[in-house]
Amino acid sequence: MTEHLDQFAGHVAVVGSGLAGLITALMLAPQPVVLLTRAGLGGETSSAWAQGGIAASLGDDDSVELHLADTLAAGDGLCDADAAAAILGDAPRAIAALEAFGVDFDRGPDGAYLLGLEAAHSRRRIVHVAGDGSGAAIVRALVERVRQTPSITVVEGVEVRRLLQTDGKLSGLLCATPAGATIIPATRIVLATGGVGGLYEATTTPTGNYGQGIVLAARAGAELADMEFVQFHPTALNAANWSAGRPLGLISEAVRGEGAILVNEKRERFLADQPGAELAPRDIVARAISAEIRRGGRVFLDAREALGQRFPDRFPGITRLCRQAGLDPAREPIPVRPAVHYHMGGVATDLDGRSTVEGLWVVGEAASTGLHGANRLASNSLLEAAVMGMRAARDILATPAPVARPCVAERLPVPSDLSAVRPIVSHGLGVLRNAGAIDGVIASLLPLALGDGPSADPALVALSIAVFAALREESRGAHARTDYPLRLADARRRTMTLTSILEAAHLSAPQSLAHTA
User: Fold this and answer.
1) Is the bond leading into 275 cis (omega within 30 degrees of zero)?
2) Predicted confidence (pLDDT) per residue in 415-435, tens digit
3) Is 280 in the same domain as 349?
4) Which residues contact 472 (CB under 8 A, 6 or more apart)?
5) Domain of 456?
6) pTM greater than 0.90 (yes/no)
7) What is the CATH number of the domain that holds 466?
8) Tens-digit pLDDT profile for residues 178-187
9) Is 107 among the catalytic positions?
């Protein structure tokens, strides 16, 4: 029997407890909010694992215009310039709001922010907390404030498996709880569910995050945008004891910002002639490292000369991570490899976080605002999460609440299992792609996505990535194709509904089967 939690009728439902979800709930006060999270509050979120910090043009030598220029350059011609300018322009307000909620950013003796430098930034503009522990510290502060806010009811251990609709309008959420199937009535829903890293064997993100918000929104009719753009962080810790399906430790870009260099097993600095060298955009660095590894080589991040014995003070978290792997980063090079780190695509939204489904807002990594384009600029993600959470909350408060609608119970989908999907995605949708591999992914995933088994939801998200990748016959940003190595002169973003994605997959399926035969 399905339980109905009617006491939450009229509440705004926020799904997810990373930075985007937490700040959305806080900014909605005193509007009643029910905050739903699969793990403990703030747990299993990429936000809490972020090391670098938040990009914000706060320095005397910086400006929104400079930050925008760096963002557009990293985005490789695919950013929505107007959206990017608006989001980056809200950075000071976002930092002030976070401080008001208890976040204590690192400052120098003069009281000025200690600003870090990361790849593809022309200025020091990364504000951080506790050195390389920014994400965890920010999430801790917001979690504490959420627990102190009477208008927010937190329900932990709840997994949302479907958005319910009545007469074509949102009416609630179908959830799995320890007690069984549960329906929470809701006509205003905010999805803040994170990225897609769990679809891959090598990721720096929580492995259970496979794009739940994306599939929830897509099944409800929302448009998806730029799904092909999956960012691989160039420098994940390539520990000898790592096994597939377990998160890789992240060696923050900030280490390279402090002067660390990348070398191969011959101690050659293979990025020396690249503009920006180690601080080139992530897609360029990830491709270069992948090429070294594909030829049978190894890659190391060497911070001995740049930091040496100062490494533990500047990067205490990374030092602990390395020592757990039997390494001393102050005395020896760190073995690294690319791993999935961020998804630039997601549910298409406007600058208020609205999706194309009435009553559904999407914020954070699950959304695609146009800020990141084809390649996210380092530390713009936490900024986007904070800014868009604030913007969505403001829009919701200014929007009259729809009349409650009766919820019709549906069968609770089975729990998702990613084991069948991960090897398919990892093999065919990695750093370097081609038509044969992409078509093979589509052929393998389509029957899984059309089923109702445990692979269906993750396969549907992965299939969307593959279809978008097949349609983009060029190399741009994080989407690199060996069969289309050049960029097209005309850069265009793409949006598709689930219906059109499946139609495209069916059209390519015979060709896909031929490629894999």
Assistant:
1) no
2) 999 999 999 999 999 999 999
3) no
4) 228, 479, 481, 494
5) 414-516
6) yes
7) 1.20.58.100
8) 999 999 999 9
9) no
